[in-house]
Design brief:
InterPro entries: Sortase_dom-sf, SrtB. The protein has a single domain (22-196), classed as Sortase (Sortase, Chain: A, Beta Barrel). It has 6 helices and 7 strands. The protein has helices at 23-26, 80-83, 87-92, 128-139, 181-190, 192-195, and strands at residues 41-42, 56-59, 95-99, 104-116, 144-145, 157-163, 170-178. Strands 1, 2, 3, 4, 5, 6 and 7 form a 7-stranded mixed β-sheet that branches. A hairpin with a 4-residue loop joins strand 3 (95-99) and strand 4. The radius of gyration is 16 Å and the shape is globular.
Length: 197
Amino acid sequence: MYVPGDGNDSLKEPILQTTNNSKYLEYGINNKPAPFIGAVFMDFENKPGLDQSDVKWVFGHARAGIEEKKITLDTRVFNNMNWFAKKDYFDSHRVVVMETPERKYYYEVTGVKVVHEDTNLYQIPTTADKKDEFISLFKNGSRNWLENTKISGEDNMTVFATCRLDDVSLRTLVLARQIPDKELKEFLEKNKELLNS
């Protein structure tokens, strides 16, 4: 996955998945201990295919300072997700790209919410009705929200989650709508400058 817009795509991370959500908090992509760094991973309860309807959750530790806007030497970071809580960054970085061996999936960043670690948003709805409820819950009290978003319960979507360095009990959640194939050409044209930056 990566977020275009900061030159060389400041967030380039493989997304791992295993049978629990604790391993990659402490282990890196090479399967060796990496305390406080870990790896970016998808919730173990998610179906692995990005074309499947369950709301995906992707987690990673935040490293470096929240106010910094620079690429650190440690490439295994997810702190970029915290930057979306800032309005200027949210407005200028609207795309997340997730690549599989088969294809690229494009996502539009829809909303950002800062929540307590015990938030009731941690759920994996799979039906359109339940996903509509999830979207409403996410939007209510969100830090930033894309007003003209087309997001609905019919969409595939992903939440990117990371810790806040200013308060370890808080999490930044970034909700992104997967662009359906029927809208992809228009979306790519609209965002071509960002995608080529």
